[in-house]
Amino acid sequence: MVGLSTLASMALIYQKSQDVYDSALQSYHETQIQSDETAIRVRNITLSGSNLIIGLTNNGSTNLYDFRHFSIIVDYTANLNGSATSSVEQYNYTTSSTPSALEWVSLGGILLPSEFVRFEIALPAPVFADTNVLFVITTNFGPGAEWQGVP
Amino acid sequence: MPGEVLNEAILIIASVVLIGALVGSVYVSITYIGGAMTQSSLHGSQKLLTDVQIDFATNISSTIISAYLQNTGSVPIQDIQLSTVYFGLENQQLPIGFGGPAPNWNTTAIILNPGQTISINITSSSTLTANQFYSLMYVTPNGISASYTLQVA
Q1: CA dist B149 → A102, B17, B42, B67, B109 (Å)
Q2: Which of B22, B33, B115 is opposite residue A66, by nearest beta carbon?
Q3: Which DSSP symbol is given to A69?
Q4: Average pLDDT of span B17-30
Q5: Do residues A31 and A47 both lie within one domain?
Q6: Number of domain units in chain B
Q7: In this predicted complex, what is the ipTM?
Q8: Residue A26 and residue A15: Cα distance in Å, rounded?
Q9: Binary contact (A31, B22; C-beta < 8 A)
């Protein structure tokens, strides 16, 4: 009797632990699949005043809309009253149509597979003439893209 | 006759005590084993759901590297300061401490939520050599790591 009860208890505990692990494994697989199926590409970068306009395409098969969890970093040479100053900053997503300095906004809503969208990034100061800009973007799923050049 | 009853009573009491002790020890064992199994399962689950990547890193001065760390997993990374950071010339990285004298690493964040990106600064004890490749590795408190190699400008 004691032996049977012990076995039953152990089986219940094992099943409960396994359920927790299986649930995590399922979530892990889903995240991995989403990450594998995500790809974006920077098509072009232009300047609009002191803002950067980034053209992006969704080359994957996931819907990209969780912009709050995107990471955008710009490494460039700023023109601060005529002097060249290095600037490396992370930019925060905003839904405002006129982003403040260190903010960015999507000019075309969400980014569905095969679609093209422009992001506007408000730099804290204009880009120093004829200098390189390094732009880094990563999606909420992990994969991202980089672009380097003179906009 | 009274002697037999007494013996029988003693045997019954002894049996009850023995069964009680057996059940008690089995219960304690099951509790311990069950607790360990649950903990192991939770720990494994947390590791599966933890993921992190270094989005970008660059030197912002001759001794400081700025790196951007993103939580690409599904669970928050708690107690960031308990993480381990390795830094140095490529293939020569050494663990560096949080805060304190250089070399060290620092961040103002305490927790890194899913999707969130934070910056960490690494201060080298010596001047970084231009054009050399440096590597950094970040390891979460539960052992998930991300690496990045950069060329110092």
Answers
A1: 26, 67, 33, 11, 23
A2: B115
A3: G
A4: 88
A5: no
A6: 2
A7: 0.91
A8: 16
A9: no
